[in-house]
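Hypothesis: this fold can be encoded by more than one sequence.
Test: take the structure tokens below, design a sequence, compare later.
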């Protein structure tokens, strides 16, 4: 268990230090290409409904867990250190907070230089909405919203499933590291499926159902855990933890997703701004609910404050979630 805790800490430090380098053999990018390939095959076979989507979800999780078990086993035969490197590499690849901070910094720099065109391009790489018509306040809101949402999806949830998988294995008398990484990979499969096929349009409403529901289920507990962690983070970041809590309790279920509104609404309250509101998606206007009751003019200083909040909250969450491992 101490080794798993050390691997988690090392992976988190690497994520903050190096971000998420872009290369063809990145495990999550390989997962994305696998989903695209398998979706095309399932649709050609006429499996474009819930059955096909369920096969896609099971095959994605199974394939990548299987590959991990294969490489982990081969590495363990070579040397325990080789196995440790494989485990560290996969855990690091499943965390995505440091890279998000780097993308958002490009948005901040462009806004500080009054370069709205570049700011739109930068934020367009990390959000799904259309950005061509966003003003500087809309760019700021988009940046803060994706920061808050991905605090759960890109950091807290994968870490939660790593710890839960390792703890469950330890309680069953098994070695914890391999089951822990398998649980983390299953979550990343659900998250990647949701981002690629989990839409509610005519093409994906049925086909993407299994991936979207798996992502909802696996983010359910971490999204709610994010609030007490963010309260502590806000308290050490000069923000308003009580206003964040009050806003989260009021607005957290106004989001279309059962999970995304928790961290977003807390951030809105702690920052004293409003997030959400109408946004363009796929050529049509989506009237999203407003989260928070402050002004909607999100400035660069709010983006910087959100990064500080999430960075400190991430360290708090890391320590809090590692405690069960150290205890066991």
């Amino acid at each position: 268990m101490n080794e798993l805790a050390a691997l988690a800490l090392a992976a988190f430090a690497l994520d903050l230090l190096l971000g998420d380098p872009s290369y063809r053999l990145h495990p999550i990018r390989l997962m994305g290409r696998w989903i695209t390939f398998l979706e095309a095959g399932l649709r050609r076979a006429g499996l474009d409904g819930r059955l096909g989507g369920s096969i896609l979800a099971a095959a994605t999780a199974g394939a990548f867990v299987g590959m991990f078990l294969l490489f982990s086993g081969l590495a363990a035969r070579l040397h325990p250190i080789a196995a440790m490197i494989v485990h560290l590499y996969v855990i690091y690849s499943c965390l995505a907070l440091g890279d998000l901070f780097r993308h958002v910094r490009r948005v901040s720099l462009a806004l500080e230089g009054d370069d709205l065109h570049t700011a739109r391009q930068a934020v367009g790489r990390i959000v799904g909405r259309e950005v061509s018509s966003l003003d500087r306040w809309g760019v700021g809101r988009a940046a803060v919203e994706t920061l808050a949402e991905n605090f759960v999806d890109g950091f807290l949830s994968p870490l939660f499933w790593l710890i839960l998988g390792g703890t469950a294995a330890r309680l069953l008398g098994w070695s914890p590291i391999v089951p822990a990484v398998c649980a983390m990979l299953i979550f990343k499969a659900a998250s990647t499926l949701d981002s690629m096929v989990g839409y509610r349009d005519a093409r994906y409403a049925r086909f993407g159902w299994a991936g979207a529901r798996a992502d909802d289920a696996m983010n359910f507990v971490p999204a709610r855990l994010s609030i007490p962690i963010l309260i502590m983070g806000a308290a050490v970041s000069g923000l308003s933890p009580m206003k964040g809590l009050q806003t989260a309790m009021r607005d957290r279920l106004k989001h279309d997703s059962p999970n995304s509104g928790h961290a977003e609404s807390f951030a809105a309250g702690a920052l004293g701004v409003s997030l959400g509101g109408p946004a363009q998606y796929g050529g049509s206007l989506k009237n999203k609910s407003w989260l928070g009751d402050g002004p909607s003019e999100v400035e660069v200083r709010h983006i910087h404050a959100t990064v500080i909040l999430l960075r400190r909250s991430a360290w708090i969450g890391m320590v809090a979630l590692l405690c069960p491992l150290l205890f066991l």
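The longest strand covers residues 284-291. The mean pLDDT is 93.
Hypothesis status: open.
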